[in-house]
Amino acid sequence: xxxxxxxxxxxxxxxxxxxxxxxxxxxxxxxxxxxxxxxxxxxxxxxxxxxxxxxxxxxxxxxxxxxxxxxxxxxxxxxxxxxxxxxxxxxxxxxxxxxxxxxxxxxxxxxxxxxxxxxxxxxxxxxxxxxxxxxxxxxxxxxxxxxxxxxxxxxxxxxxxxxxxxxxxxxxxxxxxxxxxxxxxxxxxxxxxxxxxxxxxxxxxxxxxxxxxxxxxxxxxxxxxxxxxxxxxxxxxxxxxxxxxx
Amino acid sequence: xxxxxxxxxxxxxxxxxxxxxxxxxxxxxxxxxxxxxxxxxxxxxxxxxxxxxxxxxxxxxxxxxxxxxxxxxxxxxxxxxxxxxxxxxxxxxxxxxxxxxxxxxxxxxxxxxxxxxxxxxxxxxxxxxxxxxxxxxxxxxxxxxxxxxxxxxxxxxxxxxxxxxxxxxxxxxxxxxxxxxxxxxxxxxxxxxxxxxxxxxxxxxxxxxxxxxxxxxxxxxxxxxxxxxxxxxxxxxxxxxxxxxxxxxxxxxxxxxxxxxxxxxxxxxxxxxxxxxxxxxxxxxxxxxxxxxxxxxxxxxxxxxxxxxxxxxxxxxxxxxxxxxxxxxxxxxxxxxxxxxxxxxxxxxxxxxxxxxxxxxxxxxxxxxxxxxxxxxxxxxxxxxxxxxxxxxxxxxxxxxxxxxxxxxxxxxxxxxxxxxxxxxxxxxxxxxxxxxxxxxxxxxxxxxxxxxxxxxxxxxxxxxxxxxxxxxxxxxxxxxxxxxxxxxxxxxxxxxxxxxxxxxxxxxxxxxxxxxxxxxxxxxxxxxxxxxxxxxxxxxxxxxxxxxxxxxxxxxxxxxxxxxxxxxxxxxxxxxxxxxxxxxxxxxxxxxxxxxxxxxxxxxxxxxxxxxxxxxxxxxxxxxxxxxxxxxxxxxxxxxxxxxxxxxxxxxxxxxxxxxxxx
Lengths: 246, 664
Hints:
Chain B: Residues 434-468 form a coiled coil. Chain B: One of its GO terms (molecular function) is phosphorelay sensor kinase activity. Chain B: This is Histidine kinase. Chain B: InterPro entries: Bact_2-comp_sensor_kinase, HATPase_C_sf, Sig_transdc_His_kin_internal, TPR-like_helical_dom_sf. The complex is a heterodimer of chains A (246) and B (664). Chain A has 246 residues and is of the alpha/beta class. Chain A is built from 8 helices and 15 strands. In chain A, strand 11 (198-202) and strand 12 form a beta hairpin. In chain A, the strands form 4 sheets. A 5-stranded parallel β-sheet of chain A has the order 2-1-3-4-5, with helices on both faces. With 664 residues, chain B is of the alpha+beta class. Chain B has helices at residues 2-16, 31-41, 47-63, 67-83, 87-102, 107-123, 127-144, 147-161, 166-183, 186-203, 209-228, 237-252, 259-275, 279-296, 299-315, 321-337, 341-409, 411-468, 471-486, 490-511, 518-535, 560-571, 606-612, 621-636, and strands spanning 516-517, 540-546, 553-554, 580-589, 594-601, 641-646, 655-662. Chain B has a 5-stranded mixed β-sheet with strand order 2-4-5-7-6, with helices on one face. In chain B, strands 1-3 form a two-stranded antiparallel ribbon. Chain B starts with a helix and ends with a strand. Classes of the chains: A alpha/beta (246), B alpha+beta (664). The interface between A and B is medium-sized, with 28 and 24 residues.
């Protein structure tokens, strides 16, 4: 399938760089149909061309990429944000499970991002994901979007009991025995689910400290769902300190 | 010469520890003082008994509520602890004595207290206070005709004036000797003669042969007298010191040195040192002999002497690191002269060790003395305060009597006076308490402020670097380079890359500097602006007008964030229809040392820029930090400030930022 693609980027040279890279990485997959530098232009362009794929810069000449998303009516496209360095925005992308690329764009990362899109088999960005983006930009987001093969799950953060990783998958154990498996590494969530509420007690475990039932000096934590989670040696000290102070 | 310097120091402190025995004028001496003095006399032979006897005397004085005797006992105890090198107890008793004596009108008690305090101050290296106290003691003892104590304090004063005031050294040494002769006590005479001998020896430094002979003759006479009265002299170290001083005179005297006299003096001194376990005397005797033979080239004798000295040192429970270092230093020199480098190295190891310990010790000692000085001064201030309060209370008492008289004239009047008096007390106390609390609070605040200021500055410095190399700017620049490469515009990529490298280097360097010249600042700004021009496809022009001297110095990295703002938020959003213009102007205001920097752009203006960015997640960290820095500077220089305003539409839109930067 050929994706009809637009690039929203206010710097001429960065826009050129991305198009050349796309040409190099996926000449059979991507067809660039338009560019925009300014937020208002971008809104018009997207609504007019109804693209399948949008690369969106955050800082635009008039307004931001977020403004554009608010104003468009056509929303059936894959979205990839591009950013040079916006910690706050990157955190929000992680919470709302929106794809993003860091500038200067790495060819391999670009390729992987396109492969993820292909895997979605024509299922576009969910409306609720965009809605989540706004709340994710708040200082302490209360919800997290977990993308799976079947759907975009929006879960309340205070209902996450623990996360367990196996390879590049992460299993979320929620209250009432619910389980969601996403194909993202635990590291991705460790960066946004932060202490003191969350704590990475083990290479494979991130727990919500509000759901701790008990813990022993030997290094076993019992969670409210009955699971016993080991505390690794390197994290022991920091964990006990957190328990004592928190 | 190490040994000699050390000897003088020891000489001073030992001489200060001389005791008072024998013929003291009988009148005015109580039984208690007498027994304290007897106890004091035992401090060399049996320090335990010495202190016990003195404490008993002190209890007796306390029981009899005789403040004068109590002060004297405390002074003796202070001097005993001085001899035992117990600084804490020494300090405690000297101060007790001083306080007790203050509560009496007794001159003798006051004199003793001043003597003890003077010795304390001298011990902790507070020369000027020591002189104040000792001169007070000396004056009082003179009035009391206590000649033995006049002699003792006089000699001490003479030492304190050395080496600053030759005239006074002589005056007090001579006076001390005269008083000592009058008291007839051999102990005192020897002590005073050593003081006189001290200035006679010092005079020989000029090389005058007549004066040298006079000094030698004087010491010989001193030694003769001391040997004759040996039995009556308790402080044997003074005899040893006399021998050593004479030996030093021979060594520094006309060449060739009278070797035989020199050596015989030191043999005597060494014998005295060994017999009475006077470490200082013994070590000085050995050290001087070793030095002598070393100079003479008789290395074996010298080596044996130094080794004996070290062995003696090592056998003692108390190690004198200063001397051990000195002896090993001498052995080192000896080995070097013999070109025996293996031995040199073998001696160097202990030398370094003891030298370090010596250094640590002396540092510690200095700190201890400084502590003691501070504590002692603090107490003195408190005493003065108490005295003043006492004084006030006495006054108030008088006031009370006056009121009592008025009382007879009318009950109402009395009541009112009483009421006001109470009010007065209450108010005074309240005010005092308030003042004290205020003072404490102010101190705390000041301390806190300084610390906070420092912390603030430090964290600012740290964040400064982060902000100037704004990650957004860095990655954007790298993205641009990537674009140029992908577009195969190699020449541009290379030029951009080297400009970027130069800017990075400058910012790194400047972030570590306190100040840079205006010339450097302008070069950095140009570098930065040109990078931005390349990035934004030359969509704007710039001018830098400098009407100030380019050599003046200013804090680094202050201006760039405002230029960045002007470009990113003013010029970059401009549409192609309008060409951007950035102007930076520098003016010097020499009357208040201010550099005025005006950054003008014809961009979209403040209001528009704010409107557009209402929900933008990115905010300019560097401008925020620069604001903080200016605020910090504001504390130092009230003229530094920052002004941001919009250009009137008539002048074609845009923003004007004016920075008032203190010139360093």
